[in-house]
Amino acid sequence: MKMWGPILGNTLLHCTGVAIFSILLYLFFLDWRRSRRNRSRMSACAAALALLWNIGDLVVLDPGLQENVAVHVLHIISFSALTFLSAVLLHIWLKHHYSYLWRIGYMVAALGTGFHLWTHFENSNSPHRTALIVVTVGFGALTVTSIVLDLWRRPLERWTVVRFAAAMCVLLFSIAFVYFDTKAGHFHHAGIPLSLFILLVDYRFLLLDAFLRFAIRSTLASAVVLLGFVLDLRLDFIARVAGNQFAAALAFICVCAILIAFTKLSSLIEQICTRLLFRRPGIEPVLTALRNPLTAEHTEGQYLNRACQIVENFFDCQLSRIQDHLQTADLENLPKSIALLEKGRTQPLSSNAWAEAALPVRFSRGDACLLLLGPRRGGRRFLSDDIALLTQFGKIIEVQVERRRHLEMQALASKAELRALQAQINPHFLFNSLNTLYGTISRENSEARRLVLNLADVFRYFLRSDRTFITLEEELKIVKAYLEIESLRLGPKLTTTIQVGNDLLKAEIPVLSIQPLVENAVKHGVAPRSTKGLVGLNVWSENNRLNVQVLNTGEKFNAHSRNGDTDGVGLANVRRRLTLCFGFDSELHISSSDGHTVVGFQMPLVRKSVSTSGHEDIVRQTA
Predict the structure, then answer these.
(1) Is beta strand 494-501 parallel, antiparallel or unpaired with respect to 533-542?
(2) H/E/C letters for each residue in 115-149?
(3) Which residues contact 75 (CB under 8 A, 6 or more apart)?
(4) For 478-500, what is each residue's pLDDT tens digit?
(5) What are the pLDDT digits (tens) for 101-156?
(6) Strand 357-362 to strand 368-373: parallel, antiparallel, or no bridges (unpaired)?
(7) Sign of torsion, CA 486 487 491 493?
(8) Res. 612 pLDDT band, cuts 50 70 90
């Protein structure tokens, strides 16, 4: 053990300090590149000073280094960095409170550095000891003063165990200077863990939890290597095992057991530190709550609100909100993954300046919702582990919503099948009756015969349930048949126009998506009038989207009345049918102005086959 001494211990500890604070600075740099908001400038400054102190002392420790001006300058820089590190740590702890105290701390650091600089010019150790006393007494008095002021002015507010522990660390860090130039000189390395603790308490950078895991594993690994080194020095362990195969096998088994214990112990310490330092509760109750099966009484919006509240409570946020009705423009600006928000954000995030994190959840229909989380209590940041947990929560929410939608589709299909069975009409009887009626009408009465034929076409179309999509051309045939029926009933009061491009006739649309809109326009726009009225249908394509618009003259549209009675069933069915087929990639719009009502929708343009008959519009007008 002759190898063991102050130089070996100091070298190992200073190398550890260089590694720790270098990694800490690198993580600060990564955090700054990711987000310019809430930069931890003071913490980064403290880490840089601690790194400079460890590098300086590590170089000076070399016994083969000759005394020269460069060594003296490096020693002065190292001591100055350590002195100002105390002032910066005091500043970090006090933050914006008692600014006069941390300003005095910087003055004390400058005074201590001046005395130490005087030592190298006077070739005397007395100014150096004076510098140690000034720094120790100065920072010790400042720490005690700040504690007393906190207890007196805010006995309950902002006074926690963490703040008290941080205060003690500053005090112990300053007292450690007493041993800087004594036989117990290795005690001043207490500054490494103490300053590191204060930096960790001020956790404002994203990858702090990753740094903590690295520090824990590195410390344990170093302890294991050091234990093996000491055992070999004391017991000559390697030499004894080398000549004994039985002992070598046992040693191999012991090493494997130590590695297994190292993994388990590091995980246990990481969990304990995570709960104590980051105050993060257990994740299993949250996962169970998010996976809680939805009942029929709960709507999709209720589940999203409940999930938002669960996530808010887990991260201890001050506010949260779910946005589940995003427009097409909002979906384009939606972040692809979890976003830590900054100023100057774009829609749909610009109207939520309070939010600090956004979790987008996308569904198979093309729609999405956005979970917004506000600031965390205590000024904590969202760390890398928090981002991973948010991603996991988002996946669970997505699965639960998709599961509910699937169950809803099954329920709708079962309900539709039941209604079809309850209201089933024998098609043969219906059409035989219409054929009989058609045969009893004289050939001279062409309008009546045409009315029966149109009724047969409409009934045949309504009774077809084997198709979800139909070509626009087939839908227009039914629309024209329906309008001829209404023209016979209303006479010259009804005027109709249809404008559709020939190249769109083979485009596919959901069944019964246009006829209900035309029927609604005739029923509410023209029929109640005593004068003439117009019903117009216009279909066109733009940016690979199909646009359908039905216009009618007549009373202005009242959204509340139509959504509340049976007259709005047709519009509700069209809206629901579009949503089931295209999700939020379709949109039904209603507007009224100047005695006209316009009802229409947009949907992706789906072509069955491209027509080559030209691009002339079909215009049909009946007076």
Answers:
(1) parallel
(2) HHHHHHHHCCCHHHHHHHHHHHHHHHHHHHHHHHH
(3) 56, 60, 120
(4) 898 888 888 888 888 889 999 99
(5) 888 888 988 888 888 777 767 666 667 677 777 887 888 788 778 777 776 765 54
(6) antiparallel
(7) positive
(8) very low
Burial 306-328 (b: 16+ CB within 10 A, else e): bbbebbbebbebeebebbbebee
CATH class (in words) of the domain with range 467-622: alpha beta
Q: Which residues are CB-neighbours of 152 under 8 A, at least 6 positions away?
A: none
Strand order in the sheet with 320-323: 320-323, 368-373, 357-362, 339-340
Nearest-angstrom CA–CA distance, 90 and 153: 19
The reply to whether CATH 1.20.1070 applies to domain 6-206 is: yes
DSSP string for residues in 195-207: HHHHHHHT--STT
DSSP string, 455-522: HHHHHHHHT--S-SEEEHHHHHHHHHHHHHHHHHHHGGGEEEEEEEEGGGTTBEEETTSSHHHHHHHI
User: Which of 485, 479, 474, 401 is CA-nearest to residue 448?
Assistant: 485
Cα–Cα dist 41/204, whole Å: 10
Those residues whose C-beta lies under 8 Å from the C-beta of residue 359, and which sit 6 or more positions away, are 311, 338, 370, 371, 372, 373, 390, 393, 394
Report the distance separating Cα 510 and Cα 479, nearest Å: 14
Measured distance CA(260)–CA(397) in Å, rounded: 36
H helix intervals, 185-327: 191-201, 208-235, 237-242, 245-277, 284-290, 300-315
Task: Taking the CA atoms of 439, 440, 446 and 448 in sequence, report the sign of the dihedral they define.
Answer: negative
Cα 144 to Cα 105: distance, rounded to the nearest angstrom: 13
Task: Count each helix (H run) and each strand (E run) in the chain, helices first.
Answer: 20, 12
Angle, CA of 7, 8 and 13, to the nearest 5°:
100
Question: For the chain, how many residues are written?
Answer: 623
Other residues' Cβ atoms within 10 Å of the Cβ of residue 503 = 16
> Is the distance from CB of 538 to CB of 474 less than 8 angstroms?
no
Under a CB-based contact definition with an 8 Å cutoff, are residues 476 and 498 in contact? Answer: yes
What class, spelled out in words, does domain 291-419 have in CATH?
A: alpha beta
Q: What residues pair up with 540 in beta bridges, in sequence order?
A: 547
